[in-house]
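Lecture 7 notes: from sequence to structure.
We start with the chain below.
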Amino acid sequence: MRFSWFGQQEMRGVVLRDKQGKALVTIPRLSLKRSLPSLATGNPVGGLLVLDGAKIDIERRADGSIDLVDALDSLLKEDPNKPAPKEPAPKSAKPGRPWDAISVKLINGSLSVRAPELPEPIRARRFELSAKMPAVKGPVTWQVVLANPSEKDDSTLEISGELDHRAPNSGIPPLTAKLVARHWPWSVDSGGVTMRGRLNGTYSTVRKTEQWSFSGQGEVLGLEATGTALAGDRLQLDRVGGNYEIAETGGAWDVRQLDLASPLGSLKATAKLTTGSQSVSTKIQGQLDLAALARQLPHVLHVREGLSVEKGLARLDIEIADAEKGPGRKLVAEARVSDLEARDKGQLIAIRDPASLSVHILQRPDNIKVEQFAVKTAFLDATGAGDLESGVKVSATVDLEGLKNQLRDLIDFGTLDMSGKGRIAFDFRRPEKQRYTSRLAAEFLALRVVGLTAEPIARKAVRLDLGATGPLADSAIPNSWNVAQFALKSDDLTASTKLSTTTTDGAFQIDELRLALVPLPQNPPPAAVLDPVRLAVKGRFDSTTGTLELQSLPDALKPEPVAIGEEGLKIIGLNRGGALHVEGTLTGDLARIDRSYAWWSGGAAMDLAGAFSLKSGINITPEGAITASTTFQSPDLSMAGSEGSPRRILAPAVLAMHTQSSPSFDQIEIVNMAMAIRHASIHAKGNLNTKGDRRFADFAGTLDPNWAVLDPLVAESIEPKAKVRGEARPFMIRGPLTAEGSGSVLQELEAELGFDRFEAIAFGLKVAPTPIVLHWSGGVGTIDPIETTINNGPTILKPSLDVDKAGTVTFRLAPGSEIKGAEINDDVSRSLLAYIAPMLHDATRVTGKASVTISKADYPINGDDSTHSTLIGRVEFQDVNFAPGPFAGELITLTGQKGASGLRLDQPIELAIADGRVNQRGLSIPVGRDAKLEFEGSVGFDQTIAMRAKVPITQGMLGNSAEAKELLEGLKVGLPIGGTLSHPTIDRRGMKVGLRDAGKSVLKRGASDLLNNLVKPPRSNDQRNPRLR
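Predicted structure tokens for the same chain:
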């Protein structure tokens, strides 16, 4: 700051900032041309204030507030916590000097203005302002000059005027304002359209002797419009110009001139508008060049590709004048589209009179008469006439196929196709002096619309009825309504509602709203009966607060697919343009929803059942962001079990979620989620990304199974004694939710899931507690190597998961997976080892150990019938002793041995599983001092046996003859074994054939020995007799 006794006062570096620290006004040098003595001894108000080099940056926000105004308001506002100053002691009044004139100048400045509707800020590299308020009387005058919006652009915008705020007896003070634009850049963004151009012209506003007048002559040069609303078109007009002159005289508005012209068309209007029942005269003439419009906006108008519109004119004439006889006014409106011509590859397409409209209305002080109403097109023919006493009646016929046929040569309908004929009737009358009734009825037959929805809309009949009653203003014009009715009926939908305004607070009452969705007949008919989906509610709507409240009607509380719960449904903020809040409860029947949704979507029902309630609280910001808290509950949720099994009870089921979504709904944050059914509970949080055509999820949480409830399911799916246990550990899943086939989803999925201290019991095997963790990435699942014990046998498993392009998931065990010395018992032998050694199925007192070594193991988890499990490895029995059951006993008996009390296995066996069968090679069971049973073949997963046993021929078969021992040595009989593990069968006919062949072998051996004895005499010390006598 710099003070001067005789010179001017100065401040430098003055900056005004908003609360966020943004510089709104920056003044390098501010001076007041007043000396200190004049400020001290004269009037402190007055002088010349100069702002040199001021930079001003203003922004109007979306809510209408302006940052500079807010900053000045906070600067000038008193601190509410500051004590009020004491009143000064009264002084004797002295006559003072009048104020000096106040002048403000801004020189060498710059200006920037931002607003939501401006595609780019309004900028002036040169900004000058001068304003002066006289000391005693006279108007405030001002002049603002904006120049150089960008470098090397000499455009200017000048705003000047005066306001005499001290004029006597003035409500609104006299005002003169003038705007002069010279090629000033102009742009605006609204409704998905961005327009730019250069503004030229002079525009004036004057208020004088309590009356307004407006005049202007200008143009927009180089107008260009683009944006999403134009569907890729670009509107370019060299010039849009116009003149206007509007004045207020004698309490009436006189539109003396209104002319607008552009390459697309023109509009001219004159009018004299008065208040009350005085006369009104208006003439409006406009025309539109359809050919020029089609060239500029072909996509907006859906002009067919390759078509050139060469000619076409749309014309509108409106005239309002005093009635010819008696008081009143007459309206005549004529509109016509004519001489429409287009060319397609040299072929001329002409529609001479595609559409016309004619309206003649006579308004009297106590009545309105429609003398003529007519609309004529190739697809719509409407006529009407009448007055308020007898009723104004309009009837129309509509032919949707005619619409398509008339315009298909000009307009590209794309996939849209429609057919059907309809009738429309409208009636409006005044049964009483201050009350009206109206009704609209429409009916369409054989309606078919293709292309608007995913599935064609085809209905035999659709009927719509609307009705309303209410008071009349001036005995002719509807003022409002107090009762309204709506009804809609089609093949599959019936809806009706009745509204009234009988409330005292201005809200209207929804006396009833009924909706019924009736399933259409299907061929073939569905297996389950499909009931109509009904909704019956009542409520009220308060337009002042935008609050809609709905409650179910008493007859709607019975089980329905969906109904509003006893708490009702409330929506706050409708029609307010701000935040929206929704809260309420829905109840329903899941079985009916399941069947109805399957019918509606064309998919298969999930066979769900149970009652449910859904309680939600939803907040929607003006920008569209959504915060929702939702709780789903079902006390008796169930789903179908496997074939022949009872339904699976999932209840009680609860799902609670708190979510936040972006305005575009492409980002959804699951702040927290808790889900519980009787089998397990999940707690998780994460995000859903729905940008583009695909959806991606990123979740983390914990899964806590209810093992006690799962035990019966595990026992049912594995074996009656099976149980599993484990401690939950955090899981993670990240990847797409939608893709081309399940394989694509699994290929891109990343996940981690597992349990700590997992343990299991099944088939007599006990897996000691161990962590199991699955990692999934790039279509491959890796499971951390498992080191544990199975029946006290050290175990190492190297599992993995793999998915192919068809989406088949396969569980694998890598080479090196093995079980060493697992203890076996009756359950293990009967449930598992019997597939390798069938005689163990009914064995008892089984003891010993077994080891398993895996070379390869593949188990398809899903897939079609062409997929099979594969396993290659070795099983080694270690000192396995068992008491034979009936099957093993029968085999032993065939060898001529007496019933053995115990058998023993102590050998390795080659094992291979393929095509649903367990194949083994190398199994043998000793049945005597020098004899053993040998087995080779397979057992199917269905427990069918396809084996062949090699049974030794022992001397016991021939009465324990000592002479036969040497003859029978090494001879074996092949014995086919079939049946199942529970009921094995031995092919005794095969045994007889084998014995016959063995007999031949014995005869050959005996004959050979006899010849040898005849040729070579026995030794003197050999006292044995010949083996065959």
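Points to note: The chain has eleven helices and 61 strands. Residues 264-365 form one domain.
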